[in-house]
Structures are given as structure tokens and as C-alpha cells.
Amino acid sequence: MIDHAHDLASVRDATERLLTAVGTLDNASVTHPSRLPRWSRGHVLAHLARNADALVNVLEGRPMYVSGEARDADIERDAPRGLDAQLADLRESATRFQEAGDSPADWARTVELRNGVTDSASRVPFRRWVEVELHHVDLGIGYELEDLPAEFTEREIDFLADRFSGHPDVPPTRLTDGTRAWRTGRETEGAPEVTVTGSPADLLGWLAGRRTGAALTVDGGPLPALPPL
Prior knowledge:
With 229 residues, this protein is α+β, with helices and mostly antiparallel strands. Helix content is 48%, strand content 9%. The strands form 2 sheets. Strands 4-3-5-6 form a 4-stranded mixed β-sheet, covered by helices on one side. Helix 7 (150-164) crosses helix 8 (200-207). It is globular and about 55 Å long.
């Protein structure tokens, strides 16, 4: 069972780590490229703020974004701002998200995200936790996949392995860090075709599109090509 209150607390902790780290930057470094293609650090920070507001919309029964075009335009509009404006927006939008999460609600209800995707309301705090942690890494300011909380890493591997389960373009695959194991890819009645072994950080990096998988060991075939998230 998902503990949304625990996840809201985890979002709060992750956001504080992010704000502390971003607070050491300056206006020039906010304009530097992030690790995401075509996005500066300012783009990443703007996206994080607007995502918080979008998830407030989800929790309160409104469309997550007016449109994909509006989402992209808002990020482009906010990306060039200076550090102080970025920090203020991050704090204020994070507070709005926490307040929405703290409001009495039916956490078992189904909510709608982008592109018609639905989920339990109880999973929305974890989705926000994912945004904060992975985009903190994407900023390229000293926070790496190896620095992520162990609980977060395991749960995000669970989530992404489940996301690719049954995908016709991904062969039946077993993932393992030597202690735990996950299954993903096409359904199979027998043993998986491919076994991928690596550290939790490297498994997560590959599944989340943050690493190429070069550090992973693959048996039974080549490293599967994963569809974009």
C-alpha cells in the first residue's frame, strides 16, 4: 500500500536538498547547460516549479496542463530568470503542492495526468518525488544517482520496470543488483531472454534514460533498447 503521507514528507526533504544546492549557484551558472538535451539549468528549474503547480491541478481535479504547447511555453518563458526568481518560484510552488497534499482528500480516487494517463491520487506524491530527485541530478551540480535515497532508488526501479512490462519492443528481461531482482519487457512463460546486472544507480540511470547502460553487465543478448519515457 502506498503511504502518501510518507511520500509527501520525502518530497519535502528532497525539495529542501534541492533548494540548498541551487542556492549555492549564481545567475551565470543558472544559464549553463543541464544534462538534459537543449535545456539549461534554468529550464530544469522552471519545469520543476511548473510541475508542482501542475500536480496541484491534478490533486484538485483540474487538467494537469492547459495543453502541451502551454506547458512548453511556460518553461521557455521562465527559464531565463535569475537565481533569486528561480528560487522563490521553486519555494512557493513547492509550498502550494505541500498544502494541496495536506488537505483532506480521498487518496484512493483515480486522477488524470498528461495524455490521458490515470493513476491513484495516492501515487501523486511519489511522482513529485521522482521529479525533484531526478531533475536535481539533471542539473549537474554535484548530486548524482548514487546520492539518491536507497528507498527512492528501489521504488523508482520498481516503477520503471513495471512501466516497461508487457512492452512489445522490449525483450523479456531480468534486472538485478545482485540482491534484488525485477522483471520487465514482453511477457514470457519461460525464463527471461536477457539478464541485466548492475548497481542500483546504474540500473536506475539506464531505465530512466540518464545513463547509457555501459556500466551494466548483460547476459543472453544485447542490452535492450528502451522506448522513451
